[in-house]
Amino acid sequence: MISKKIPLNIDYKALGYDNGGSSPTLSTYLWEESQEMPWMNKRPAVLVCPGGGYTCVSQREGEPIALKYCSEGFQTFLLHYTVMPGKFPCALLEAAKAIAMIREHAEEWRVDPEKIFVCGFSAGGHLAGSTGVFWDSELVKNALGVTGEQIRPTGMILSYAVLSAFTPHLQFSFPNLMGSDSQNPEDYRNVSLDTLVNPDTPPAFLWHTVDDDVVDVENTMNFASALRKNGIQFEMHLYPHGPHGMSLANEITPPVLTDCQNWITMSVRWIKSFL
Asked: pLDDT band at 169, cuts 50/70/90?
């Protein structure tokens, strides 16, 4: 395995954005070139965006997820992105730059540039989903000097994600992201992803638990409804029980909930359906 941490150098001062002095990085978990398995030398990639309410980057939703997808044969990447006091759109620009970097180094990193998926959890799910709705926005393209095609994810895996400003989950992620103490949902309409889905949004794999008491399941349901209305292919799984932040829901990232553990297997199958 080739593992290294790469700084994501973005000149926020020149762009006029406040990243709170953070130092975003992209970590790699890469299969080495194989003489015995040459057919595996061009693999799909998964970029992992951990959660943390835009206050931190969760460890339990980071490396365990990256290593799991790596064990399934994918080239995987882990994003450590800007959180508060940094503000929007810094984290979005970092995720977009990470995708562009993966495409730019596709040959070196043995990645299929047409198969780059982004996987996010909770607020990291908001970040992952943001790459899917903002990939062709002038905001991102102008800041990074890239084309939309360079930063468009092939698909999104959104795990108990913060996706809608019009749910009870307003006291955490959205104020942290925007740097505002306001609790008015209208203040966050421009980053409420369920209102930004369009016919060019990439396909999505969604999962959530119905009794999640931190991020309401309506986030996932509203987003799925928006995907359906725009004719976007998606797969959604709702589990009846399970707390927020389960990650793999196994012994590595407890609590152990066997009923929910198959989300990762199903997401792997979903990724492979694009091959």
From this structure: low
